[in-house]
């Protein structure tokens, strides 16, 4: 399942990417553009806006109005509504910034981009082909994983 979030839902988009879901987010975006991208790419529209319900006929089940203004409650609504089963191997597999799937990268190839401490203590590195950011499993990943588990998402 793929998603597109309206421009109020940047944090939700990041959480969905954290779970590995292909999720578009543009800020700002016109309603018309949001809907046409969703239809063209077969994405579910997630929106805080009530007036998007005028597109309900076109989108059918592919429109979900998000109720809460809390990102983790929003995430839970999406997970429960679509009965999403999170594949743990997909966690942190996607760039949180630009939505691209991350690629494994040999640590030797990026040695000059790493702090010596990180180079010495970490072994698994991922690179985003979109923005070229390097990611590795560090404490914030563990914190996010714990949050997801406490919220009952995974
Ligand atoms: Zn990226």
Look at the helices and sheets and give the structural class. Answer: alpha/beta
The name of the CATH topology of the largest domain is: Rossmann fold
Radius of gyration: 17 Å
The second-level CATH architecture of the largest domain is: 3-Layer(aba) Sandwich
Number of domains: 2
Characterize the structure shown.
This protein has 154 residues and is α/β, with parallel strands linked by helices. It folds into two domains: 3-90, Rossmann fold (3-Layer(aba) Sandwich); 103-150, no CATH class. It is 34% helix and 14% strand. The protein has six helices and seven strands, in the order βαβαβαβαβαββα. It has helices at 10-18, 31-41, 56-59, 71-81, 116-121, 139-150, and strands at residues 3-5, 23-25, 44-47, 63-65, 103-105, 125-127, 134-136. Strands 2-1-3-4 form a four-stranded parallel sheet, sandwiched between helices. α1 crosses α4 (71-81). The longest helix is centred in the last third of the chain and has 12 residues, at 139-150. The model has no long low-confidence stretch (mean pLDDT 93). The site of zinc ion (ZN) has 8 residues, from loops.
Structure characteristics:
elongated; 154 residues; 2 domains; alpha/beta; binds zinc ion; Rossmann fold; four-stranded parallel sheet; three-stranded antiparallel sheet
């Amino acid at each position: 399942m793929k998603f597109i979030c309206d421009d109020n839902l940047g944090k939700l988009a990041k959480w969905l990417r954290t779970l590995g879901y292909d999720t578009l987010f543009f800020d700002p975006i016109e309603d018309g553009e949001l809907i046409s991208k969703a239809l063209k790419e077969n994405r579910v529209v997630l929106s805080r806006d009530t007036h998007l319900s005028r597109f309900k006929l076109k989108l059918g089940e592919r429109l979900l109005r998000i109720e809460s203004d809390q990102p983790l409650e929003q995430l839970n609504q999406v997970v429960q509504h679509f009965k999403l089963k999170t594949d743990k191997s997909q966690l942190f597999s996607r760039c949180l910034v630009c939505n691209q799937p991350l690629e494994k990268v040999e640590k030797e190839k990026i040695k000059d981009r790493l702090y010596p401490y990180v180079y010495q203590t970490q072994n698994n590195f991922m690179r985003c082909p979109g923005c070229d950011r390097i990611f590795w499993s560090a404490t914030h990943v563990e914190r996010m994983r714990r949050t997801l588990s406490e919220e009952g998402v995974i």
